[in-house]
Amino acid sequence: xxxxxxxxxxxxxxxxxxxxxxxxxxxxxxxxxxxxxxxxxxxxxxxxxxxxxxxxxxxxxxxxxxxxxxxxxxxxxxxxxxxxxxxxxxxxxxxxxxxxxxxxxxxxxxxxxxxxxxxxxxxxxxxxxxxxxxxxxxxxxxxxxxxxxxxxxxxxxxxxxxxxxxxxxxxxxxxxxxxxxxxxxxxxxxxxxxxxxxxxxxxxxxxxxxxxxxxxxxxxxxxxxxxxxxxxxxxxxxxxxxxxxxxxxxxxxxxxxxxxxxxxxxxxxxxxxxxxxxxxxxxxxxxxxxxxxxxxxxxxxxxxxxxxxxxxxxxxxxxxxxxxxxxxxxxxxxxxxxxxxxxxxxxxxxxxxxxxxxxxxxxxxxxxxxxxxxxxxxxxxxxxxxxxxxxxxxxxxxxxxxxxxxxxxxxxxxxxxxxxxxxxxxxxxxxxxxxxxxxxxxxxxxxxxxxxxxxxx
Length: 457
Fold this sequence. Notes:
457 residues, alpha/beta, Spore Coat Polysaccharide Biosynthesis Protein SpsA, Chain A, 12 helices, 5-stranded mixed beta sheet, disordered C terminus, elongated, 2 domains, Nucleotide-diphossugar_trans, 8-stranded mixed beta sheet
């Protein structure tokens, strides 16, 4: 029997590892979540008897303290460390039945991302990898992984080799992979006016950027926005004659950006063509007869998303996931790492501010689904000739047409006006949502998400 150790900061990969395990040959799989740097996780397998999930907040290098925590628990049998970006090779399970329980074994590795084979039996730095060796617990003794040093796998197995060289055996077969699971890389696409970025930037940094950084996820920021010749007015939002800072977008320090003239784009796409079926917001109490500002803004943000989609597609092969988000909102809760799934083709959309069961202000998904999402502008004119171009209704129609599935995630934010005022509707919906979360019983999976009070600007 073998005990498996996985130091985890990428829980979205665990299901793939799970599917590669022959549990009849496993004593326990220890998943030790790295909760240093204020990381937070939910247990993925609470009902599995052979899976032990624990938290370890000790800081260190690349999960080494988490591996050591599991080593302190295991007292017998083979020990095998499985990285959270890898899976088991089928040959591993065939060999396991043939191994002598008092020997250390190494084998060859398929470096699938590099299209080469790394031979086993080489106890040298950069020539031996975590998944290339299996060790009886009794031979490990008090040896542990170096907490703050790189090349932890080599340092660890080298110590074992010095003590028990006569116990090492090399099997000239490929029995493991290296970095089998593709790494997450994200394009964060900010669309629309940066009218209140000076207020919202701290929340963007805390709840969008920092969770990605904490989990070692690389990302690029894309931004498309507008500059305006005249002061900004939006009667529905209570914004009147506000001069916007044309350089405010620079606070975000985007990797790639495009700034267009609002007046030039409005003339080019001819906003009046989209009014065939009237103003979808015309029946609201605050509506002003003949004022199409809200409809025009909807069309302009569709144009913004279209430009962003063209921008990130130039680097399409670089990204595993795309996020569309607004720069003028105060984010309340952090991105969750398990939303970056390779096994689900669903979009993640917020669980608040729903109209027709969707919220069109944020979406996260893989490129295949996010291309039609981001190219909705191309179908907007035709749709507007048949139906009022209401934002959520049009989004639903697009997803149905392209067979895009979605799921709600616990993610909410407050729109911030150019004058610094918060959107009252968002505040009310978030309070309702957090009150609902308070009532959830302890011990349920949803309970661990809890609630977050509304931040102050």
